[in-house]
Amino acid sequence: MLPELKVAQLRHFVWVAELKGFHAAAEKAHRTQPAISLSIRDLENKLGECLFENRKAKTTKTELTPFGKYFLPKAKELIAHHDRVAEDMMLLSEHKAGHLRLASVPSIASRVLPDILLKFVADLPSLHVSFFDDNSDAVLKMVENQQVDFGICHLFHEEDHSDKVFTPIWEDRIGVVCPKDHPLAEKEGVHWKELRKHRLMSNGTSRLLEDTEARPLLGHSQFYVSNMISLIAMLEAGFGITTLPWYAFPQESTTLRFIPLITPEVTRRIGIVKLSNKSLTPPAQALVDFILERSKS
Questions:
Q1: pLDDT tens digits for 101-160?
Q2: What span, in angstroms and rounded, lies between the C-alpha atoms of 212 and 127?
Q3: Closest CA to 270 of 172, 177, 197
Q4: Which of 256, 273, 250 is nearest to 170 (CA)?
Q5: Do the beta carbons of residue 9 and residue 42 sit within 8 Å?
Q6: What are phi and psi of 163, to 5 degrees?
Q7: Neighbouring C-beta atoms of residue 39, cutoff 10 Å
Q8: For residues 111 and 115, what is the distance between their CA atoms, to the nearest angstrom?
Q9: How big is the chain by its Cα radius of gyration, in Å?
Q10: Mean pLDDT of the chain
């Protein structure tokens, strides 16, 4: 059976060896000399060998035995490993270290998260962050496969995701996006039936219309574009129009216009998704708490 070595006893042994005396080691440990002697004796009993010569002789000289000389670097190695693990766990519990993995839909990834992450990691130089952006289905899949700690996305059918916890945070309205010289561009609001007169491009967020009276538009689309960069390029090139949530609309665009869809009025809820049976790591939980706190302000 392997001996159970206590870190405190290992430290006492190293201090006695390096400081050349039990008295000096006792001062460093803030213990009495008899207490240090007892600690070393217990360690020797566990190891089955003496660590210092002349232990029975009443002498202040502390000379390591051959076994003690061999054990000294091993003891230092054990102490160093313990201290590294203890420090890592302390930093992890304070979310100052570790590896944080999250995934988000592109609209929140580009519009909201940069500012949040910048403030969150400001004083956390040892925290590593892996950040993925994809559509809601892909984000949910990454959460399911535990590739990320949590995801930020829209839950299309919450009843199909009973294994997850969804915390809604952001809400945005669906609108029509078209070039500024398009006939719809001057309107303040659009009825869905007006869109049938124009070439419509659908995208990943078009499913938000499925359970509304505007559902026929899904079959009216001539193009389906999954990538947001490509969709914006096609809109700017005049291929047609599309529906998008407000957060997904490129705010920096000088050539496109966002017009709210007023009939039906459709909103989407975006929030944090995590597995219901799995606790978050301290860094991940800290970021979730940080996001929730900022959303209240």
A1: 999 999 999 999 999 999 999 988 888 899 999 999 999 999 998 999 999 998 767 677
A2: 44
A3: 172
A4: 273
A5: yes
A6: -85, 5
A7: 23
A8: 8
A9: 32
A10: 90
Q: Are 33 and 76 in contact (CB under 8 A)?
A: no
Let me know: does 105 contact 152? Beta carbons within 8 Å: yes
**Nearest-CA neighbor of 121 among 272, 292, 286?**
286
Q: Measuring CA to CA, how many Å separate 182 from each of 111, 137, 224, 229, 260? A: 26, 32, 20, 20, 15
Residue 237 backbone dihedrals phi, psi, to 5 degrees: -80, -10
pLDDT of residue 141: 93
> Closest by alpha carbon to 235, among 219, 254, 217, 216?
254
- Residues 225 and 201 sit within 8 Å (Cβ to Cβ): yes
Decide: 269 and 156 in contact? Cβ < 8 Å. no
Q: Is 196 helix (H, G, I), strand (E, B) or coil?
A: helix
What is the reported pTM?
0.68
With contact defined as beta carbons under 8 Å apart, do 192 and 175 qualify? no
Residue identified by tokens 């303040």 is 188
Q: Which residues contact 109 (CB under 8 A, 6 or more apart)?
A: 131, 133, 152
